[in-house]
Specification:
This protein is an alpha+beta fold. It contains 12 helices and 12 strands. Helix 3 packs across helix 5 (about 105-115). The chain starts with a strand and ends in a 9-residue tail after the last helix.
C-alpha cells in the first residue's frame, strides 16, 4: 500500500522501524496511545471526540479548545518532539490540508488520525479508491438524477430576491447567455468561487483560505527500477517538499501497458496569493525539471522511461483548517442561507473530504424541503 524513500532506498510503510531511532519509536507509541484514547472517547450524548463528518463530533470544551492551537503547539505540549514523528504527522497535514504543523489546527490534525479508527483499539479503517478517484462517486450520484443535469453551463451570477432567485449562466455549447428563475437554489461552489458569483454574499474576512497544488501525470513505457522495497500504490520521499506519487494504474491486471504515476505537490505557504502567482508563472519546462529532480534520486532511469509528462495547476486545492477556523464564527455563518440561496460544499465542513461535501449537500436539500413546507424524515 505504501513505501518511503529514505537513506537511499525504499522501505515498506511510511514509518519504517529500520530508519527510526529508539526515541522516534517511543514517541510514536505514545502518540498512537493518545490517538487511541481520543478514538475511544464519547461525550454525554454518545458522540465521538472526532467524527466524520465534523458536524457529528463532540462539542466538549476541552476538545474545541484544540482548534485554538496549532498541531505544532499541541505536539510540543505533549513532548512529541522526535524529528521523524514530526515529519510523519506533518506529512499527513500536508497531504490532507496543504498545511504545515504550525498552520494546522490541532483539532484537525488529531481528527486525521482518530476519526479513522472505527472501533476503539482497532487499526485505522481502510479506504476505498478507484482508477478515476472520486469521479466514481460523482458518476454514481449523477446517475440517480439522469437527464436533469445540465452540463457545460457556466454560472456567472446568482442573484437572491425576496421570493425568487435568478441564476445567470452561459451555455458553453451554443455560447448563448441564459437566465433561470428558481424558488430556491443550492450553491455547491467552494467559498472562493461562491463569493465571486453570489450577489450580496457577506465577506468572510479571509477565513476560508486555500492552497495551490500542482499535479503531474508521468506516463512511462516501463516502470524504472528502484532500490529496496518494490513499487507500492503510494510512494513517498521523506526529503521532499512534494508528497511523492501514486501509481494510477495500480488496479490494472494487464501487465503489458504503460504505467502512469501521479505526482503531487502542495504549496502550504503563509501567503497563499503569492504562492498562486508563483505556481501560475512557472512554465511547464520548470515543472518537468523540478519533478525529475525530486524523483530522480529514487529512480535513476526515470527520465529515459517517460513517454509524456502532463502538468495541472490547481489554484485553490482545498480549504485549510488553520487554528480557529473549524469552530470559529466564519464557518458557522457561511453555512447559513442567504435568502433563498442555500450553501453546500466540502469547505463548509472545514475539512476537504468527500463525506463533508455529501453531508453539506443533504443538509442544504433538507433546508429547501423545510422552507417549502415539505414533510420529510431527515437523512442526517
Amino acid at each position: 500500500e505504501e513505501r518511503l524513500f529514505a537513506d537511499g532506498r525504499w522501505h515498506e510503510g511510511l514509518f519504517p522501524k529500520e530508519v527510526a531511532t529508539a526515541e522516534d519509536l517511543a514517541q510514536m507509541e505514545r502518540f498512537q496511545a493518545t490517538v487511541a484514547a481520543f478514538a475511544a472517547r464519547r461525550d454525554d450524548a454518545g458522540r465521538r471526540a472526532f467524527a466524520v463528518p465534523v458536524a457529528r463530533a463532540s462539542r466538549d470544551a476541552d476538545l474545541l479548545a484544540l482548534d485554538g492551537i496549532s498541531m505544532a503547539a499541541w505536539m510540543a505540549r505533549e513532548g512529541l518532539t522526535a524529528p521523524f514523528l514530526r515529519w510523519w504527522v506533518e506529512y499527513a497535514c500536508r497531504d490532507d490540508f496543504a498545511c504545515l504543523l504550525e498552520t494546522t489546527s490541532a483539532w484537525a490534525g488529531l481528527h486525521y488520525f482518530a476519526a479513522r479508527i472505527a472501533v476503539p483499539g482497532d487499526e485505522p479503517s481502510g479506504f476505498l479508491t478507484w482508477p478515476e478517484g472520486n469521479g466514481r462517486l460523482v458518476a454514481h450520484l449523477a446517475r440517480s438524477v439522469g437527464d436533469r443535469i445540465v452540463s457545460g453551463a457556466v454560472v456567472t451570477a446568482v442573484e437572491p430576491g425576496r421570493d425568487r432567485v435568478v441564476v445567470r449562466w452561459i451555455d458553453a455549447a451554443t455560447r448563448t447567455r441564459r437566465r433561470t428563475t428558481a424558488e430556491h437554489v443550492i450553491c455547491a461552489l467552494p467559498r472562493y468561487a461562491a463569493r465571486r458569483v453570489v450577489t450580496g454574499l457577506p465577506d468572510d474576512g479571509g477565513s476560508f483560505r486555500t492552497s495551490p497544488w500542482v499535479v503531474a501525470n508521468l506516463t512511462l513505457d516501463v516502470e524504472p527500477a528502484s532500490p529496496g522495497y518494490p513499487t507500492a500504490w503510494d510512494n513517498v520521499l521523506r526529503d521532499s517538499e512534494a508528497l511523492g506519487y501514486v501509481v494510477a494504474t495500480h488496479q490494472s491486471d494487464r501487465a503489458e501497458r504503460d504505467a502512469v504515476w501521479t505526482w503531487y505537490r502542495p504549496f502550504p505557504d503563509a501567503d497563499t496569493a503569492a504562492a498562486r502567482r508563483r505556481v501560475l508563472a512557472t512554465p511547464w519546462a520548470a515543472w518537468r525539471d523540478a519533478i525529475l529532480a525530486d524523483l530522480g534520486p529514487a529512480h535513476h532511469e526515470l527520465e529515459r522511461r517517460i513517454v509524456s509528462l502532463d502538468v495541472l495547476r490547481w489554484g485553490h486545492g482545498m480549504v485549510r483548517p488553520e487554528p480557529g477556523f473549524l469552530f470559529g464564527p466564519a464557518r458557522a455563518r457561511a453555512a447559513l442561507p442567504l435568502g433563498r440561496v442555500h450553501f453546500a460544499a466540502a469547505d463548509l465542513g472545514g475539512l476537504p473530504l468527500f463525506e463533508e461535501a455529501q453531508w453539506a449537500g443533504v443538509r442544504a436539500a433538507e433546508e429547501v424541503l423545510a422552507a417549502r413546507g415539505v414533510a420529510f424524515t431527515s437523512s442526517l
